[in-house]
Amino acid sequence: MAATRSTHTTLPDGEYPIVHDKMILLRPLTDEHLLEVYHEAVAMGLSAEFIQLIEEAIRSRNLDPKTSL
Questions:
Q1: Picking from 3-7, 19-23, 58-62, which range would have the lowest pLDDT averaged per residue?
Q2: Nearest 5°: phi and psi at 25?
Q3: Would you say which domain of life the source belongs to (predicted)?
Q4: Is the whole model's pTM more than 0.90, yes or no?
Q5: What is the DSSP string of the chain?
Q6: Could you tell me which residues are beta bridge partners of residue 9?
């Protein structure tokens, strides 16, 4: 079995580390869909780690998560 390499980054204010390799899964989403996923994840109370992963993807695209859909 091949080893998988991932890069971890520690975020400020005690946030969970983000595994940037997982962000690859969010790349196919349009900006609109990424924001929709974010708002739904927050509304559903999904894990803080997942929400932070989406927030990192939003920041990397220079989007505003407060943008209404």
A1: 3-7
A2: -65, -20
A3: Bacteria
A4: no
A5: -------EEPPSTTPPPEEHHHHGGGTTS-HHHHHHHHHHHHHHT--HHHHHHHHHHHHHTT--TT---
A6: 18
Q: Cα(57)–Cα(54) distance, rounded to whole angstroms?
A: 5
Structure tokens at 69: 């859909």
- Residue position matching structure tokens 């209404």: 68
List of residues 6+ apart from 7 with CB closer than 8 A:
19, 20, 21
Q: Which residues pair with 8 in a beta bridge?
A: 19
Contact in structure between 7 and 19 (CB atoms under 8 Å):
yes
């946030």: which residue's tokens? 15
The band of 64, judged by pLDDT with boundaries at 50, 70 and 90, is very high
